Amino acid sequence: MQRPMLLCRCATIFSATGELDEENFRIFLQRFIENGHGVYLASGGSGEGHALTWEELRRVYEIGVEECKGRVPALANPPEQHTAEKVIEHSLLAIEAGVEVVNIYGPTGWHGYRPTDAELDAYFDTVLDEVRHPVALAPNPNMGYTPSARLMARICDRHHQVVAVNLSGLTEGYFVELRQTLRAEVEIYVPFTASHNALDFGAAGLVDADSNLLPLTFRKYLEAHARKDVDAMNATYGDVMKFVRYVSPWASANPRWIKMAMRVLQQPGGEGIPRPPYRMPSEAVQQQFLAGLRELGLAELA
After folding, report:
1. Residue pair 219/196 in contact by the 8 Å Cβ criterion
2. Alpha-carbon distance 212 to 261, whole Å?
3. Which of 6, 241, 275, 294 gets the highest tally of CB atoms within 10 A of its CB?
4. Which of 122, 133, 191 lies closest to 162 in space, CA to CA?
5. Which pLDDT band holds residue 1 (cuts at 50, 70, 90)?
């Protein structure tokens, strides 16, 4: 079994006036390459994919492939859509840019919509009959509903281009049931907060956004797991959880704390801003945030 991989839903870097900052985005991607982490590009959350124009989406995918492919996985996480046709359109754009895997969500839960099993089956059949490329599926409860593990396993069984399932906000029990019912060659990636046992139970790795700021810390965590150093793994887990708890007041959506942290830590691209409707917090809040980051005592944030 290969060592667990981290896949980061990476941020998209904008300039101080809000344009896509291609130069600093390339610099930003180097932190993942240096630490051996793959990247999910243009995520609807941390990547602000919903705020990107069609041409900006294309450039984000192209830049990610140019910088990462052949060194670390360069993957696409197109923003979720309400119709299969829109998902197909977005997926094909990413594939044309050269990404290795496309992550596909179920239909959005707008206005309380919750698909029946038959509707979700039909939705994925429609998408995957057209997207004949390696894909990951994401039964994400943030969509407004959670498909059952058995339903996801059946969809994966019918469509052999499905190479992974990405879990977020789901229980350890969901992971175990999915692993038991899913065909063996389909990998499962879990969020950091659910990883401590899941890695031993057969998770292929982590899919997360906190590594936008802590790529070295995440690498150390996975290295400790690989050498079965429980003490080091526990210590690093505790460090990351301190960070997760600290940013949680700003984390109803990740761009707020990611962009603020990049600015106060004076990282390349930190002079940029998030796209509306997000707004950079005030200078006073930024300084308060920086003081709290320092108090965490994490070497990577020094």
Report:
1. no
2. 10
3. 6
4. 133
5. very low
Residue 109 tokens read as 């839960």
Nearest residue to 272 via CA among 60, 15, 46, 10? 15
Residue positions counted in the chain = 302
Q: Which residues share a beta bridge with 105?
A: 138
Token reading at 231: 């003490």
CA dihedral angle for residue 46, residue 76, residue 164, residue 242, rounded to 10 degrees: -20
For 26-44, the pLDDT digits (tens) are 999 999 999 999 999 999 9
pTM exceeds 0.90, yes or no: yes
Count the Cβ atoms, other than its own, within 10 Å of residue 144. 16
Which pLDDT score is estimated for 3? 67
Name the DSSP class of 189. Answer: E
Residue 2: what pLDDT? 61
Enter the DSSP assignment of 20.
B
Q: What angle do CA 139, 142, 143 make, to 5 degrees?
A: 70
Cite the DSSP H helix spans in the chain: 22-34, 54-68, 84-97, 117-130, 149-158, 172-181, 195-198, 215-226, 230-247, 254-264, 283-295
Per DSSP bridges, beta strands 5-9 and 162-166 are unpaired
Q: What percent of the chain has pLDDT over 90?
A: 90
Report how far residue 64's alpha carbon sits from residue 62's, in angstroms, rounded to the nearest whole number: 5
Query: What b-and-e string marks burial along 68-77, b requiring 16 or more CB atoms within 10 Å of the CB?
Result: beeebbbbbb
- Flag whether pLDDT at 140 surpasses 90: no
Could you tell me which residues are beta bridge partners of residue 103?
A: 136
Tell me if 232 sits within 8 A of 30, measured CB to CB. Answer: no
CB contact at 8 A, 205 and 7 = yes
Contact 175, 190 (CB under 8 A): yes
User: Which residue in 299, 290, 250 sits closest to 274, CA to CA?
Assistant: 250
Q: Are 52 and 42 in contact (CB under 8 A)?
A: yes
